[in-house]
Structures are given as structure tokens and as C-alpha cells.
Amino acid sequence: MKKNSQLKTAAISAIIILLLTLLIVFGFRSLFTPVGGNHSASDPASIQSSVPSPEPSSEPEPPEPEDTAAWGEPLPENEMPAGEDWFDDAIFIGDSLTEGLSAYGLLDSSNVVASTGINPQTILTTDCIEQSDGSTVTVLHAIASRNPAKIYVMLGSNGVAFIDKDTLVEVYGEFVDNLKSAHPDSDIYLQSILPVTHAKETEDSRYANSKIDEYNQAIMEMAGEKQVYYVNVAEALKDENGCLPDDVGSDGMHFGPSTYNLWLEYLRAHYAE
User: Fold this and answer.
1) pTM
2) Residue range 168-184, pLDDT digits in tens
3) Are residues 129 and 222 in the same domain?
């Protein structure tokens, strides 16, 4: 019995010595490293790699909300004015005031579709734009085949004296509806009716600048309803009394190239980004 006990003791001692030898040779870390892994449980990279990646969402991204900050209010001034080529892909629609843009050589005639005497009541139906074959067509027909990036409209100078405000805005709005329908990809800018000189409003109260301001307010509100841009060009041309300066023209409404340049400079500084 004593001999068996001694043998068992010797065997146990041999096993202990073998284990101690293995620990010394291979180290504790290698003995207890999980099979198939070489990172410890506290290794962030190991933890991160063990977390399954989330499945990509099958839900479509919601569309960016449309910027409607400018609807129903004047376009603010931009920090960086547009370049000289800003109007290359634009069309200007209006009456004799708009005609002056090409008459004075400030814009190419192809960019101006205007007619003396046109007003919001007649612009949809009057054949007033001359074609290359000598025929005349309406404004909308004249630009039907074109796809301008921008369309600038100025109407009302011929009309403020004899069309009441509500009627003018109503027929103007009808023209805007037709313009939007025909050119859905164009940015449309409604420009304010321009002021007249103090001499003009004194001579004919139907053209009072205070009245023009009221019409412009109504046009701006209509622009908001139609979701087109409104540009308050009038403020660029007014003097300290809210009138067109007396020395810019002879009839109190029309003017020369220097004033037209102020108009275009204002448009280049006030545009939709």
C-alpha cells in the first residue's frame, strides 16, 4: 500500500512539473487564447469586428424640402452678384420699358420679347411680336419653342392708370399660369412696376407712386401664390422721395442707358440661388 501511495505521489509530481514547464515555455496567454482568435476580450477592434453591421435600409431617402423662403416677398440681395453672362439664357417680357433693354444694346434682341403698349389685359391675346416672315404672334407663341433658364416679366406700367388693382392682378396671374404651364423648367421672376417722376405724378395723379406701390404689393402677393419670384427693381431706381429722378428722362416714365444699367445690376444682385 505504501508503495502504491508513493507511486501516485510521484505521478502527480511529474504532472505538476510538466504543466509548469509548459507554462514557462508557451506562456499563460498562448494557453488560454480562444481557438481561431488572436485578440483579447478587451481589445476594441475585436469587440467591434464581432458586432454585425446593420443591414442597409430599404426605405428611400426623403426628398429635400423645396426652398419657399422667397415666395411672396422680395428676393434679398446675394453676397456674390451674378456675372455678365447671367442673362444669356434669359428672356425678358414686357412693354416699351422692357424694349429699351435691346433698343439701347444692353441685351441681345433675342433675349427681349416686348411690345409698346402691351398690358396684363392684352398680353395673352394680342399678336404683337413680329416674326422673321413679317407676321405677328402673341408673346407666349413667340417663345413657345424656347426653353430659357430664366424668364423676367414686367407688366403694369401700361395699366396702372386705367385698370383697377384687383383686375390687373387677376389677369396678370392668368398670364403667369400660362407661362408656368408652357415653361415648367424656367425660373420666373416678376419685376415690380417702376416708379415715375414727381413731375409725372403731379401732372397725372393716376400714376401716383403711392398707387404704384400698392399695385406692387398686390403683385408680390400674387407671385407668392403662384410660387414665382418677385424682384423689387423699383427700389433701385427711386430717389430719396420714392420717385424716378426727374433728370433721367423726358416723359416721366422712360429713361436712358445709365438707368437701365442700374436695373440690370439690381437683377444680377437679386436672384434665386
Assistant:
1) 0.76
2) 999 999 999 999 999 99
3) yes
pLDDT band at 250 (very low <50, low <70, confident <90, very high): confident
Instruction: Establish if 41 belongs to a structural domain.
Output: no
Long-range contacts of 95-100 (CB under 8 A, 24+ apart): 95/119, 95/154, 95/155, 95/157, 95/158, 96/158, 96/254, 97/154, 97/157, 97/194, 97/253, 97/254, 98/154, 100/254, 100/255, 100/260
CATH classification of the domain holding 179: 3.40.50.1110
Regarding whether 240 and 145 lie in a shared domain, the answer is: yes
pLDDT band, very low/low/confident/very high, at 12 (cuts 50, 70, 90): low
Q: How far is Cα 163 from Cα 143, in angstroms, rounded to an integer? A: 26
In this structure, what C-alpha cell is assigned to residue 63? 426628398
Question: What is the domain count for the chain?
Answer: 2
At 35 the pLDDT is: 46
Write down the pLDDT at residue 65. 44
Give the tens place of pLDDT for each residue, 80-90: 999 989 999 99
C-alpha 160/C-alpha 98 separation (Å) is 16
pLDDT average, residue stretch 9-21: 62
Domain hosting residue 19, numbered range: 1-32
233, 263 Cβ separation under 8 angstroms: yes
CB–CB of 157/211 below 8 Å?
Answer: no
128 lies in the same domain as 4: no
Q: Is residue 72 part of a domain?
A: no
In-domain check, residue 54? no
Torsional sign, CA 214, 180, 235, 160: negative
